[in-house]
C-alpha cells in the first residue's frame, strides 16, 4: 500500500480505506469509494481522461489482436513518460481459458500483469458468485412454478465452464422434461447488471425487475417472490473490482464483463469511474473489434449509462489482420474513421509478431496513405511498453496531459477533435424512446456502415419483436426504452463483409429483453445460436 | 498478524510466512506449511490433541443440534481457561444457506464467528472453484465422447445451488438427449479429493484416476485425456484453508467438506494436521450425527487416511432431541457408549434453547443414570463459551493439558481411556483388502448397532456390486481396497430406528465407486435417491 501511495499520489490516502489485500491482489469497495466522493465534494479527485483500447474486427473469434497486451504496454509506456496512467480490464472467462479455447487475457510477454495466473484462473471468485446468484434465481423460479406462481421460466441457467451439450437441455427428466438452455456466465443478465450498476441498491432494484417467466401469458418479475438480500449477499465480493499491477508496477483494475459479441464486453462502469477519480489517464479495454466493444462502450455505456466519453482511442490490429485479406481490408479504416469522426483522437496501433519488424516502413506508409494519425507500432509481447514509449507524443498531446518530453499545454489542433465535439454532444443524446428497430438501424449505419434500407428482418424477427413488446408492456415498460445490445459473431460486421460496400446487409434475426438490466439483446448477421461454446 | 502471534505463540513466526490476508479472513498455504515442517524437523511444532465435536442423530435433516455453535463455545471456553485451543470447521454450502433450506453454519449468538456472513456466503470461492473444476472434467469427457474415446460419461455435473429439477436432466436436447444427473458440489468426488489429499501432486494423481466413463464397456480415467494442470490451476485457492476467528478472538480454520449424509462430512485433513502443529487442542467438527460425521472421521479419515485419532469427543444434543421421542431415545447413549468404548473420552453436551434452563437438574440426573460422564450443559447461543467454561475440568483432564484451575498432570483414570487404547490399536488396522460387504457389515454393527445377520441386500445391490467390482478391475484396482462411504438419511441409522433393537435392519441398496478419491459410496437404509435438494 505504501508503494501504491507513492505511485498514485495524494488521492490514495482516502482510497486506501476502501481497499483490502486479497491474497496477491487487493479488492476495492468501489461503491463505497464513489459514494464517499459524492458525499465529500471537498475531497480532491482527478478527472481522468479515458483512452479506449479496441481492435480491428478479428478474422476469427478465437484470434485476439492483443488488446490486453496493448493496454498494459500503453500504461507502462505512459507512466515511463511521467503520466499518471492506469488500466481497466475486463475479467476473462476462466472456463474458456481452462478449456483451452483461448489463451488467457492477462497480456503477454513483457506486457503482462504481475500474477497473470490469478486473472486467468478465476480471480477472487467474482464470476462464480454471479453464476451462483443467477442459478439461484432460476431455482427460486422453479419453486415459484411448483407453487403455481409461474407456468414458464424464462431466465436461463448459467455455467462458466463451456459445454456444447448444455446449449439445450431438458430438466426434471422423466417428469416435466422442461426445455431449458444454459448460457455462459459472463454473458448473463446478472453480469450485465453488475457491469452497469452503481450501488448495491441499484443491483437489488434491477434484480427485482428481472423477468422470471410468465403466468397465464403475463410476465412475472423476481421482485414479486424472491428475497433480494439472498442475491445481494451472494454478490458481496463480486461487485468489488480487483486491484493488480503490470509486471512493471503500473496500476490495473480488473472487473467484470468479457464477451462483447453476445453481451456488453466492457468492464464495470464503477471500475472506470473510480479509476478516473484516481488517475489522469485511464486506458479502458473493450473487445472484440471496434464494431463490438467500442460500439458498446460508446452507444451503451457512455450514451445511455453515463460512462465517460473517450478522449482518445487506440485501435489495435495485427499486421496480417489489417492487410492480408483484400476483401476485408475496408474494416480497419472504417473503424478508425468512425471513431475519429466522433471527435475521438484515434490512433492505429500495429501489434507486431515475431519476424514482422521489417514491415514497419510499409505499415507506416499504408497508414499515411489512408490518412491515419501516425501509427504506434511495435512487438509488444517481446519488448513491452518500452518500444512504444517514444511513439506516444501525439496521444499525450491529444489527451492534453503533461508528460516528459512534450511541451505542456500543446493541443491537438489538426485532428479536428474540438470541432467534432459539437457532433458528440448530439450523439450523446439518449436514444431511449426512439423506435427500437430505428435504434438498430442507427447502429447498423454508424458502427457497421450499412444504411437503413439494407437492414433486413429475418423470418422470426417480427414475432420476437411483438413478443418483446408485449413482455415489456406486461411489466409496465416500453420496449423502446430498452437499450439494444447487438449479438453477433465477433468476426463479422454485416451479413457479408466480403461483399462490395453497397451490397452489404445486416439482418435482424430475433430479440430478447433483459428487463432487469434494461437491455434488449438483438441477434443479427451470423449471430451465434447460443453463447455456450464447446471445448475445442 | 501481530495479534495472532501474541495469541498463538512461537510457532506462528514461521506459519505466518504461509498466510496471506484475504479480505476479512486469511488464506493459508497448508500444503506448503506441512511440507516445510516435514523438511525442517528441527522446527518446533505442537502435537495438538483432537476433540471431535459430533452430535446426536437429528430428528430431521434440516434441524441442527448446534455443532458449530458448540465448537465455537468450546474453544472460547478452553482459551478462557488458558488452553491453546483452536477449531477446524467445515465450509457450509452457500447454496443451501442462500436457498433458505437451512441456516448458515457459522455458530450463533454469543458463540459465533466474527464475520459469519463470509463463511455462509461462499467464503473465498473455494467451493465454486471445485464446482467449476468438476464441471470442466465433464466437459472434457464430452469432448472425449465426441472424439470417440468414450461412449458413456459417468462423472456427474455439479451445482452448489440446489434445484429439484437438476436431479435428472437430459443434455444435448434434440440431438443425443443424453441422460445425466447433477449433484450438489460439496458432495462431489473432487471435493472428496480435496478433503483427503495432502499435496497438489496427490490431487493431480487422484484426478487422473477418476473415472470419466466407459468405452466398449471398459472404464476410462481422466488421466488418459485431460491436461491435469488445467484442473489443479483451477484449484489453487480452493486447497487453502481460511483462517478466521470467533467473536471472542479464538482461532478457527475453515476448509471443505459438509454433508456427512452423502459424502465425507469432515473438514480437510490438512487443515486439521496444520491446526495440530500450531495448537495444543484442536476441536474438529464432523456432522451430522455421530453415526455419520464421527463414523466417517474415525473409519475413513483416521483409520484409512492417517488423520489424528480423537483424544476426546463431545456429542451435542438438544434437550428435546435426546428425550422427547421414546422410540428414538436409544440413539444418544448408543453414540456416547460407542465412542467411549473406543478409548475416546466422550462428553455429553446439551445445547439448551430459550426456556430450558430449568431442565438442567433433570438432564444431569438422566445423564448420571445412563452412566455418562458429567455432561456439559448451557445455552450456548445466549451465553457463549462463558457458560461452559467452568464445566470443562473433566475434558481438560482427559486431554492431559494444563489449564487454569486444573492441577497439572492429573489424568483421567476412571474413564478407562488408557485401557481402551489397546482396542484402538486394533481398530486402527486398515480394512483395505477385506471384502467390501464385510466392511459394510462392520460399519453397521459398530456405528449403527445392527449385527451382520440383519444387514440385508436390496434388489439392485448385487448388480451394482458386480458393476463396481468390474469397474475397479478394468482400472487395475480391487474394489475391496476402496474405502466405503455410507450414503444415508442423516436422521436415521437403520431401516427402522423406531423398532426394538433386535428387529432393526440395515439394507445395502447400491454402490458407486469414486476411483479417484479411493472411495466407494454405499447407499443404505433410507438414503436419498439424489444428493440434489430442492429449495424449500
From TrEMBL, chains A, B:
Segments crossing the lipid bilayer: none
Q: In which pathway does it act?
A: One-carbon metabolism; tetrahydrofolate interconversion
The enzyme class is ligase
Q: Name one Pfam family in it.
A: FTHFS
Q: Name one GO biological process term.
A: tetrahydrofolate interconversion
Q: Does the keyword ATP-binding apply?
A: yes
- Superkingdom of source: Bacteria
Keywords from the named record: ATP-binding, Ligase, Nucleotide-binding, One-carbon metabolism
What's a Gene Ontology MF term here? ATP binding
Known EC number(s)? 6.3.4.3
Name of this chain's protein: formate--tetrahydrofolate ligase
What taxonomic ancestry is recorded?
A: Bacteria, Bacillati, Actinomycetota, Actinomycetes, Bifidobacteriales
